[in-house]
Design brief:
Length: 355
């Protein structure tokens, strides 16, 4: 008996329709193909299912059956295991007494990666790859490129490395303070690289979401909009302060440079963290979703800042080992104390106002 096996490794059929897999029988596979084509006409697995039906109708000199098996979306290992289990189900449903042979129908090399799993269960006569014929004109090329740019998987695997490669040359130009004759070419290449990299990472979508959140925050009167701006300004000031601290030192090692950078910026960064966390807590209180443990954030920031300040001071020689021990102990106790205090407060006054 010949079993025509349509393989859908990423389970487009199960995710986009209400069909339960595996699908066995000509009419069932044809119905599943129609449902998938209705849900997503551009899905290539539609052609795989219809090709399986076509092969079934074209073979009339021997016992033949057609079935569709699917995997899962995401993990290749889990997908192969799921396909193997569905193949076992299909084989168990067949009543043929003779040996069953399979003809696989796929839409590309990715689905064919499951061939060894299927071969371990049934003899495979061949693999039939479905290729859709399309007009090779300018409009088709434009549509293909547009689809590539909009596909998250393609963006991550192709466009991100390409964007990084395009950024190499302009970074080399910037390293020489843009004084080389080819600086103009480097700037152009850098702009192209930034665009491709942004497309690959989906940065334009992130930017749009950020703008929408800021706009809704302004209209809703959220305090975090102001505190985040202030925190960003404080972080910039902290970065500048850290750089100036390093410049004013006679740095002799990388460790000292890092310590100077932390020493000069940690106070500003702590102020930024406390400002943003209090803004967040205020918004939670105003929206009636406040919980006592939210107040841990500013104390955690102070705790971390105390530890970093003590360690950096010790490396710079401005603090003794005893003072470092005091800073570490104080930071640890501050974090533990706030956690315990607000946990008790939340247990006693759960649902009550924090004031």
């Amino acid at each position: 008996m010949l079993l025509i096996l349509c393989v859908d490794l990423d389970d487009d059929l199960g995710r986009k329709t209400d069909c339960e897999t595996p699908v066995v029988g000509r009419d069932a596979v044809e119905s599943a193909a129609v449902e998938l084509a209705t849900a997503d006409p551009e899905d290539s697995d539609v052609n795989v299912l219809f090709e399986g039906v076509h092969l079934y109708d074209s073979i009339d000199d021997e016992a033949v059956e057609v079935a569709a098996v699917t995997g899962v979306d995401g993990s290749d290992v889990a997908a192969n295991r799921a396909v193997g289990e569905e193949v076992d189900t299909v084989l168990a449903s067949l009543t043929a007494s003779e040996d069953v042979r399979a003809l696989l129908v796929t839409d590309g090399a990715q689905d064919e990666s499951v061939v060894p799993v299927i071969r371990s269960r049934i003899h495979i006569d061949g693999v039939h790859r479905v290729v859709v014929r399309q007009a090779q004109d300018l409009e088709s090329m434009y549509y293909t490129i547009k689809q590539v740019l909009d596909d998250p998987e393609t963006r991550g695997t192709i466009l991100v490395p390409l964007g990084i490669l395009l950024l190499i040359y302009p970074l080399a130009i910037l390293a020489n303070f843009l004084e080389l004759p080819g600086s103009a070419i480097g700037i152009i290449s850098g702009l192209l690289g930034l665009y491709v990299l942004a497309r690959g990472l989906g940065a334009e979508e992130t930017l749009d979401r950020t703008v929408d959140r800021v706009r809704s925050g302004l209209y809703a009167g959220r305090v975090t909009v102001i505190t985040y701006v202030v925190a960003a300004a404080l972080m910039v000031i902290g970065g500048v302060s850290g750089v100036r601290t390093v410049e004013s030192m006679a740095v002799e090692s990388v460790a000292e440079a890092i310590a100077g950078l932390v020493f000069g910026s940690v106070r500003w960064f702590a102020a930024a963290g406390i400002t943003s966390s209090f803004g967040r807590v205020t918004d939670k209180y105003l929206s009636d979703s406040f919980e006592w443990r939210y107040l841990n954030a500013p104390f955690y920031v102070l705790s971390i800042a105390a530890v970093l300040y003590g360690v950096s001071s010790y490396f710079l020689g401005t603090a003794t080992i005893e003072e470092l021990a005091v800073a570490l102990t104080a930071g640890t106790l501050l974090g533990l104390g706030s956690t315990l205090a607000f946990a008790i407060a939340e247990t006693r006054w759960q649902g009550a106002d924090p004031v």
